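Thread: protoporphyrin IX containing FE complex, take 2
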Amino acid sequence: ETMVLYLVFIHSLYFIPSMSFHIRRNEPPLDKGMIPWLGHALEFGKDAAKFLTRMKQKHGDIFTVRAAGQYITVLLDSNCYDAVLSDVVSLDQTGYAQVLMKRIFSLNLPNHNPESEKKRAEMHFQGSALTQLCSSMQNNLQHLVTPSEMGLKVSEWKKDGLFHFCYSLLFKTGYLTVFGAEKNNSAALAEIYEEFRRFDKLLPKLARTTENKEEKQIASSAREKLWKWLTPSRLDRKPERQSWLGNYVQHLQDEGIDAETQRRAMLLQLWVTQGNSGPTAFWVLGYLLTHPEALRAVTEEIQGGKHLRPEEKQKNTPVFDSVLSETLRLTAAALITREVKQDKKICLSNGQEYQLRRGDRLCVFPFISPQMDPQIHQQPEMFQFDRFLNADGTEKKDFFKEGLRVKYPSVPWGTKDNLCPGRQFAISAIKELVFTILTRFDLELCDKNAKLPLVDPTRYGFGILQPAGDLEIRYRIRS
Ligand code: HEM
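Output below.
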């Protein structure tokens, strides 16, 4: 009898820390947080990077947290991201995408299929279509930086925030290029950017449904205005089916999607295609302006390519490429989310197996690992412009963790089966903007000793990070 009691006692001790039916053999460690139901939701939303780093220190590369009634398993072993996420049968990406579309874009696309969307986009953002798109992008950018378009005389100084300067220029360039809007209405273009920013600023709150009444109104009004601008028939769609957007609109029409939903879908695509390049260009230039050695190296590289034809200039730029990779490592913070449709076993790179439970959510957050993993990148919070360069000036691809080569030192464009189809176009546009600014403008910090603004911590999870403030610059068009 004492033996039985003893066993019961031991058994109950075993269960006390979890106090839950959720713990089962081989499931990741569970951390429910102190607050019933809500769990860790507040901390997660306030600063996901800080929270998940803390959880990683406590539990390791895989753990389950509770947030707002949902059990979320977070996987931070980057060597197994591809293998885990390739199982599209057990792991569904459409359900959560639908929820976000509704919350953020007020959009219902019941047949939305991210996989086929990516295939459609891939066709239009590579090969000869990409070449055409890039050349149109270059023309549009050159048009936008003429003195008349900038409202600026040659050699006249003007002050601005670097984030605003980069984002507005690249947004307008991308909008003209991808949405085929008319070039010669700069007032409308400026207005569209301002509305887009009003909306973009609130995006994390809309996604988490934490916006207040006033913010809700601001978002609604910005959306309404943007929907009007984005009505497919108002956009210049001369290339029709040949262009990605024309093809997409045609697809929506074929699916029987009504006109109102079509223009709402346009705003989704505007954000997908224009929401990340501008902020990236800001961080690239911001890091260069606050790291003179890096700026010198990039400027020298551009000088060295001066004699090349325009279409060749972008091709061999290892220093700039390293600067961009390093910038993306520090600022690309998309959270990849899947719904677990059926119980599933996953295997970490150390061979350990874990069971994922049906109905839970799986999140992969490459920002924490590999990108900010101190075992992979020394002093990961530091910007080192040559981190992705070998001593002989070629691209560095070999990075190690505990003696094993890591598959990817950085994952800004998503994982193998979920790569951003617009990545080459994005790189080309960012490069073009940075090269144009460094060759055609004088651009400097208003305060020589200014530091980069801090990151807005609410944006972890939503693509490229944005700064909490701005960096004051002055610039002029060179004579
Ligand atoms: C620095 C800039 C950019 C970054 C870091 C970036 C990153 C990403 C990532 C990580 C995804 C995958 C999201 C997921 O599957 O969960 C994605 C999807 C996508 N990106 Fe990009 N992207 C950038 C710029 C662009 C540009 C310029 C375009 C097009 C012109 C573009 C078009 C797309 C499209 C169409 C998708 C698929 C969206 C869907 O699921 O329907 N992206 N991007």
